[in-house]
Fold this sequence. Notes:
Elements: H1 3-65
Amino acid sequence: MGFMDDAKETAEAVGEKLKDAWEDTTDRIGDKVDEMKADADVKKAEAERDSVKTRNDIKEDLRDDH
Length: 66
């Protein structure tokens, strides 16, 4: 095998490593985005739950006054 063949194989191996690293990085970023969206959905649902509970408590208090 000549020098050029070795260089070509090395370049291909480096290219594959870079491609794999890029794919791993984009997957991690996507996973983090999904996690952040899920956390935001949970916080929104919790806030809505708290709002409904407060509204129901106020209604109940008003009913008790009559």
